[in-house]
Design brief:
68% of the residues lie in helices and 1% in strands. By secondary structure, the chain is mainly α.
Length: 463
């Protein structure tokens, strides 16, 4: 999901962490505390990158690093007679995380509810049983990844589409490899033009630097980013079509489509809260969670009874066992805690002062355009979330065209390498041995062509 990146992720502005109060900042960039914090964060992120090899959950090292970094900061400030500034700063960071946490928790709960109702399984089986050619499946899965990821997250979308590729691509490792690359590019591109499509776009929206409707100015650049590599990669596909599969189709459970509608209504509620009431979008999402909770109550009370096969002689029947708290429990908790560790750790490094020189260099000497393009390239090496959080907290003085540019590059830059996005990392595990780092790397020049073209189109239509 996402070590060089930390070179950028520590570039967080000092003043960005002062809430409504101005707090005095002690420059610790040349202090042993600063060096220790940098080393801690570097080491923790190396462990994150090596998650698959070490079988160590990525949240563990960053949680510990965040805690130690803020202990060092608080100790230093207290030693200088300031018992207040560190508290103000960490509260501000924690509030930012809390908004992101509850927003994502609601979205994950809805996605898990759709999974439980077999919404995505039904879609997968429909595609598998239709008997499409390899080229048609390549385009269908890529387009669906592009279309679904703006509403769902790009990770879930990629896993669903990869399941289709694996189901029909048995015995065709080339098709699986190219199809997975296409899915990763499509999902990341689709998530770049929607506030809900990626964690980075969500952070940009919640920060208020780009309004909801303005994200859709990135739709055409995102299409270009997806289509150009796909047009070239399709010529590497095998000819023909997979063998038809006449297996039994999965049947969607009662209420599956209703939950999809409720999720869309929840998104509308979040947008309305933000645009018309000027409330944080997370409050709209929490209100939308109530929709699902009431519908879950309805399912349990009115759900279609089913025979309990474990107690057949008695003919005992059970009602629909949908439980909203089971869906909440199945949220990606490791990912949520990983975000906590990253945001608090990067926030601590920013409060220490590792931003002034870098901010001046990136956005002062290099200029906003070059800096924002580099953000996308760095996102391919590491996770784009801390990179975007660093940019937001840096808060460089940019116009909307540049804010949209960095939103685009951070979103699609991760497609350049398989390790650059959560989608790519997940698919390397799901299609192990067929979709690998090097099978993706083979297409990096083509993906880079789409990356450059999308930036050019952005300036052409939005500049």
């Amino acid at each position: 999901m996402k070590v060089l990146f930390l070179i950028l992720s520590v570039f967080v502005p000092n003043v960005a962490f002062c809430s409504s109060e101005e707090v005095p900042i002690i420059d610790l960039t040349q202090h042993w505390v600063g060096y220790t914090a940098l080393a801690l964060f570097a080491f923790s992120y190396i462990l994150v990158v090596l998650e698959e090899q070490l079988h160590l959950r990525k949240s563990k090292p960053v949680l510990l690093a965040a805690g130690i970094i803020w202990v060092l900061i608080a100790f230093t400030y207290n030693s200088n007679g300031d018992n207040h500034s560190a508290e103000v700063a960490i509260r501000h960071n924690f509030l930012e995380y809390a908004e992101l946490f509850f927003f994502l928790l609601v979205a994950m709960t809805y996605i898990n509810a759709m999974l439980e109702r077999r919404v995505f399984d039904t879609l997968r089986d429909w595609l598998v049983l239709k008997g499409f050619s390899y080229r048609a499946l390549f385009w269908l899965t890529g387009i669906l990844a592009f279309v679904i990821s703006p509403i769902a997250d790009n990770l879930t979308t990629s896993l669903i589409m990869c399941a289709v590729i694996l189901a029909v691509g048995e015995g065709q490792p080339k098709f699986v490899a190219v199809g997975c690359v296409n899915i990763v590019v499509g999902a990341n591109a689709g998530g770049a033009f929607s506030p809900f499509g990626d964690i980075t776009t969500l952070m940009v929206w919640q920060k208020g630097v780009v309004e909801f409707a303005d994200f859709f100015k990135l739709f055409v650049p995102a299409v270009v980013n997806f289509v150009i590599p796909a047009l070239i990669m399709q010529y590497a596909l095998p000819a023909g079509r997979p063998q038809s599969n006449d297996g039994e189709r999965v049947k969607m459970k009662t209420g599956g489509l209703t939950i999809v509608v409720l999720f869309l209504l929840t998104i509308v509620t979040a947008v309305s809260f933000h645009n018309f009431l000027h409330l944080p979008p997370v409050f709209g999402m929490m209100t939308g969670l109530a929709y699902l909770k009431f519908f879950g109550y309805y399912l349990r009370k009115q759900g279609k009874p089913g025979v309990d096969t474990s107690d057949m002689p008695t003919g005992h029947v059970i009602e629909d066992d949908f439980d909203i708290f089971d869906r909440i429990a199945k949220a990606e908790w490791d990912t949520l805690f990983f975000f906590y560790g990253v945001i608090l750790a990067v926030g601590g490094l920013g409060f220490i002062g590792y931003l002034g020189v870098t901010s001046e260099f990136l956005y002062g000497e290099l200029g906003a355009t070059t800096a924002n393009i580099l953000v996308g390239v760095i996102s391919a090496i590491v996770d784009n979330i801390p990179v975007m959080f660093a940019v937001l907290t840096m808060n460089p003085d940019m116009d909307q065209v540049q804010w949209l540019l960095v939103t685009l590059t951070a979103g699609v830059g991760g497609s350049l390498l398989s390790i650059g996005s959560a989608a790519g990392v997940a698919l390397m595990g799901q299609a192990r041995g067929q979709y690998t780092f090097f099978s993706h790397l083979r297409w990096t020049p083509v993906i880079a062509l789409g990356y450059v073209a999308s930036i050019w189109v952005h300036f052409l239509i939005n500049g």
